[in-house]
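Tutorial sheet, problem 5. The two components below are modelled jointly, 590 residues in total.
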Amino acid sequence: MYQILFYILAVLAVSGAFGMITRKNPIVSVAFLTISMVSIAGLFALLSAPFLAVLQLMISAGAVIVLFVFVIMIVDYRREESRRRVIQFGRVLGSAAVIYLVIVLALSILKPPFIAAPLTGEAFEMPETLGRLLISEFMIPFELTGVLLLSAAVAVILMVKRGEGERDT
Amino acid sequence: MCENVLEILKILIILAMLLGSVPFLVWMERKGAAYIQDRRGPNRATVLFTRFGGIFHGMADAIKLLSKEEVCPEGSYKPFYFAAPILALFLSLISVAVIPFAEPLKIGGCEFNLQIADLRSGLIYVLAISSFSAHAILYAGWGSNNKYSLIGGLRSSAQLISYEIPMALAAISIFMVAGSFRITDIVLDQGVVPLYWNIVRQPVAFVIFFVALMAESNRLPFDLPEAEAELVAGYHVEYSSMKFAMFFMAEYIHMFIAGLLIATLFLGGWQIPFINAELLKTSSYEIILFVVPLLGALLALLGALSIGSFKKCPTPFGKGDCGPIIAGSLLLIVGVVLIVGGFLAGMLDLPLWVSNVMLFLLQIVVLLIKAIFVCLLFIWIRWTLPRFRYDQMMRLGWRVLLPLGMINLIVTGAVIMYIKY
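Model answer (structure tokens):
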């Protein structure tokens, strides 16, 4: 039962991700991303971390993707497509990210101290455990992520403000 | 063995209850609207010369919606267009899974808990599902290729995102009071005395949660996604027949679940006010001796009054209503049976499980009464207040409810610290 569910969810997650990067229409690709996110939430639930699964469903699949869809529906994406500079920049950035990911994956597999994630057991079901880990052991990454998100928000506001003056360029 | 059967049984019971609540709520809404606007409301559909205050209009509506032609707009994006109503109904149905309807019932070795999943992160699951339900409306709006639909969908998602945060803040203050995410714990923590229910302990959180839930279920002061004066019908303009009915059902089920949720979190859940469940369990003999005949007398009185209000039965083509006499005589018979049965059962020595089952049913009824009361409140507000303008709604969400929620959180934390240390 467990294995069947795992394979179904894993296939759904991967094919959702694949569908997301291959679709031309951004809204359809966001729908695929949603499928992927929901399957990942299911995988968390299978790993006996239902709290994390619910959070994944709430934040990633709920709020963040709704925000995505919202922005995509408002922004006229056809005009965005025609901007060659954006596309070129995206290609450069994308290939750089892919190369980095491949290097990291290769290093983590090839290097000897490659440990499979240990089973966390019952304790991880408790929100207390998660909360304690977040504000003790993983305090600095957690705060840095917060700063990253804040800077992204500031950047978006800055770009929108600048866009207002020179709309038709 | 009995567990598996009961699991399936309780899912069926709860789903049937939810789907059955839709025609009832629609009827309640129409009647409520009518009485607020000084009308009579629906009262024409008759079955076997009876009207029962127009409750059969739900059946007529269902037949009408099922037999209507389905129209699919030409430029629509089919996968989204067809998936959206299914998704909407599905998401509103599954969020009931964590609500406990009664205390676990133990008979012999079997335990029957009328709650589909007792998740440790119960309330967060509800929040997650409700934040997810914007997808259905968004896909409906975008998929049907209509600018009114699209605007409705966008408004809905913006509304959902803005009201999700105050709702979560209100929920957090409840977690802090109860010390747990589990809904069963939250219910038990409130106790049987209404003075210790969360509505008294957390009045600000109650107001925030109530308003946010109303915004999330797209009820009238917040029904901008389907504002018919501006957007024709919002995200379901292009839907007809059963696909429209699915959105409609999803909306009413959402409202019913909102009522259940508020009853569970703020009004003590399935706990009977002032009466301790343990007391009822131990003194089953007296209850049967007193309460059941009392209930029977009440029902018989109602039946007699109903028969008394009966005027005339119609000829096949005339006017009139046989409802009072049929309902009244049924109530009278049930009442008399309860009186006699109660006295008979009081004389015999009943096994313990009878009183346990009765307690179980009583708890379900208590929760449902609370939930229906909250739904009545929703209906009352809907037909009393005018619709907000879009910017007013956004201002209410971000500038009033959000700071209020944060202040409430800080005050709650301070008070809990003061009490504990």
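Marking note: Residues 65-271+386-420 of chain B form one domain. Full credit if you identified this.
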